[in-house]
Amino acid sequence: MATTTPSLLKRITPQLIILAVVLGLNLLVFPDFFDVSFRNGRIFGNLVDVFNRGAPVALLCIGMTLVIATKGIDLSVGAVMAIAGATAASLVTDGHGWGTALIGALATGALCGAWNGVLVAVLRIQPIVATLVLMVAGRGIAQLITEGTILTFNNEGLIRLGAGTVLGIPTPIVIWLALGTLATLAVRRTALGMLIEAIGVNEASSRLAGINSRVLLICVYLASGLCAALAGVIVAADIKGADANNAGLWLELDAILAVVIGGNSLLGGRFSIVASLIGALIIQSVNSVILLSGMPPEFNLVIKAILILAILVIQSPKIGHLIYMLRASGPESLPERARPSAAPKEDAP
Amino acid sequence: MIRSTHLPLMVTLATFVLAYALCASQYPAMLSTRVVANLLTDNAFLGIVAVGMTFVILSGGIDLSVGSVIAFTGVFLAVILRDTSIHPLAAFALVLALTTGFGAAMGATIHYLEMPPFIVTLAGMFLARGAAYVLSTDSVPITHEFYDTLQDIYYKAPGGGRFRLIGGLMLLTFIAGALIAHRTRFGQNVYALGGGAQTARLMGVPLASTTVGIYAISGGLAGLAGIVFSLYTSAGYSLATVGVELDAIAAVVIGGTLLSGGYGFVAGTFFGILIMGLIQTYIVFDGTLSSWWTKIVIGALLFAFILLQKGLTWATTTRRKRATGSAQPS
Questions:
Q1: Interchain contact, B296 vs A129, CB within 8 Å
Q2: In angstroms, rounded to a whole number, what is the distance separating the alpha carbons of residues A104 and B39?
Q3: How far apart are the C-alpha atoms of A245 and A145, rounded to whole Å?
């Protein structure tokens, strides 16, 4: 749907405006915010930092957008990050190369994603519950891999994934931009995106229309697991260690938030990865405003909460409500059904 | 005869009895009243919050804010008792009003703005945790003689077990919760709402007041759990009770309540809490197992009970189909 440039631009305008406002606030509290310099073979600057620090959430929200588009949710991504980070760290400390470690971590992430996918698609468990299992147990599994310690490592190749540069640009930025582009192209240049949206709008009818929803659902959760694994490796590489307790803690909530700020309905249907990525940048910019303004970091959560509430109230428009009311008062009162069809209209104000 | 509707409750009960028997066969000391008393005391705050969570989940919703509300309550009490001279009882009343109002506000947001409970309570979680940070980032000790008085109330059972006030408070909460859920109109409305909002509305269930009431109960009980937690630790810390909402949800599910709503028992949650407490006690007794095994075992239990629920739902629907197919009302 949002394949042509003008319609995509129209879709992401609200997000761009919010991002511009938040970046403007940054400029207000820190006049040198947009200064970017080139030192020691890499670019430096606060703006670069926003992109760099936002990498884990940005990666997570690529997968999360797809999952939410199928009317699902993936609560386990934070735990999967911890598992993947622990796997990579334990592989390099055992003397394996960074390539093996990366592949091992991605494989674990894929396995976790596939587990979630099977629970949702085959056993038909609600996504919140299905992914809750791994969210609760995942950190325990990660602890099992690291044997209860923070596994540190000195593998240059692995560290470069989190702290290195490619052509002067920090690697995490390159990774999430590349993956974001790849995912956008994969869902928008093929019918894949539309099939995912079809599942989110109405899974039963999508199956009747000949979509193999079961396989597609598993693939979507698998993709989310892969994204989480990549984010986990980056976080571990960044601190040169795998912390099973704190790696990716609460990042699943940030990722869901980024997707919601990106204007994607939690009830599934139409989605935009680009808008979600901008949502991730907005979250990181808010963090940066709070840091740069010298406000006590205690206020971080309160401000974030108020921001979420504001955005949610804005996104809960009268149009959707009106349609709901009209359908509810009509002879065929099926508001339960009316909701998903009303939801996409909320996204395009 | 056991009705099939009671089966999940029975399975939970059987799991608890079996697990306890296994633990006791390995460590006979686990049968002592001390262990039983500690099981109640250590899980008191979790139990109280899980009662509220049972109501929320019975109605088909979810409340992610409870862990943060507990932390906020603890910090609020600690700070207000440190900085002012008001009596703890007045502070309790104040904080209960505050948290109940907070829950009601979330319920109103969910109902009137038609937002998913998941995302509204997520915002509530950030808000409550943030408010706790703003009050104090340090752990604030509570030193009030009234706290000492409350902590010294206990019933000493033969065998040395001390049944403390907070354990008793949890039991009372469970009894009150069970009575409200199964014996009042509000409780029936909660079940009806969980069975389907649209059906409930057509049946004349007041959706607005029920939804607001459910989340107010959950918020208020989270506040009560916060008071109990502050009695338990004698301190308020804004980083405390992170992830308690997950433990509460897990306890509710292990207790046999259907996460899609409309089916479950408050009593089941009680045994869910006891099972989770038992796992921790076993790990303490064993001494060689790391505490992270708790998480893995709880995750596995969660999975097993979800599968059980799925199997039962599937069995019921096929039987109902067969019954309607042969035109015989069951």
A1: no
A2: 41
A3: 12
Domains by residue range for chain B, with CATH: 4-315 (1.10.3470)
Distance separating alpha carbons of residues B249 and B242, to the nearest angstrom:
13
| Residue B7 to residue B61: CA distance in whole angstroms | 23
pLDDT tens digits, A228-285:
999 999 999 988 888 887 777 778 888 988 898 888 887 888 899 999 999 999 888 8
Contact across the interface for A139 and B295, Cβ inside 8 Å:
yes
Q: Encode burial over A224-258: b for 16+ CB neighbours within 10 A, e otherwise.
A: bbbbbbbbbbbbbbbbbbbbbeebbbebbbbbbbb
| Strands B154-156 vs B140-141: parallel, antiparallel or unpaired | unpaired
ipTM of the complex as predicted: 0.74
**Look-up of token digits 């039963």:** A204
Kindly report the CATH number that applies to the domain delimited by A50-315: 1.10.3470
Rounded to the nearest integer, the mean pLDDT of chain B is 86
Q: Do B130 and A299 touch (CB under 8 A)?
A: yes
B141-168 burial code (b ≥16 CB/10 A, e <16): ebebeebeebeeebeeeeeebbbbbbbb
Rounded-to-integer distance, Cα A6 and Cα A2, Å: 8
pLDDT score of A346 = 41
- In this predicted structure, the answer to whether residue A286 has a pLDDT above a threshold of 80 is yes
Q: Coil, strand, or helix at residue A169?
A: strand
Distances (CA, A) of A222 to A74, B74, B263: 11, 40, 31
In one letter, which amino acid is A117? G
Which residues, 6+ apart, have CB-to-CB distance to B185 below 8 Å? Answer: none
State pLDDT tens for residues A31-45: 877 777 777 777 778
Q: Is B155 on the interface with A (CB under 8 A)?
A: no
- How far is the alpha carbon of B122 from chain A, nearest alpha carbon, in Å? 8
pLDDT classification of A324: cutoffs 50, 70, 90: low
Minimal-distance CA residue of chain A relative to B258: A129
CA distances from B254 to A59, A131, B261 (A): 33, 16, 14
Q: Which pair of structure tokens corresponds to residue A72?
A: 């699902």
Give the start-to-end residue ranges of the domains of chain A.
50-315, 317-349
pLDDT per residue as tens digits for the range A58-84: 999 999 999 999 988 898 999 999 999
Name which residue leads in pLDDT, B70 or B310.
Answer: B70
Please count the other Cβ atoms lying within 10 Å of the Cβ belonging to residue A51: 21
Whether B39 and B278 have beta carbons less than 8 Å apart is answered as yes
**What is the model's pLDDT at position A335?**
45
Enter the tokens of residue B178.
């069970």
| B119 vs A138, A312, A333: nearest CB | A312
Residue pair A66/A268 in contact (Cβ under 8 Å)? The answer is: no
Q: What is the nearest CA distance from B261 to chain A, expressed in angstroms?
A: 12
Q: Scanning the structure block, which residue is given the tokens 């899609």? A: B260
- Measure the CA–CA gap between A102 and A243, rounded to whole angstroms: 17
Q: Are B103 and B43 in contact (CB under 8 A)?
A: no
Q: What is the pTM of this model?
A: 0.81
Least confident of A87-101, A172-186, A322-336: A322-336
B38 vs A39, higher pLDDT:
B38
What pLDDT does A281 receive?
93
Largest CA distance in chain B: 72
Structure tokens at A266: 């939690």
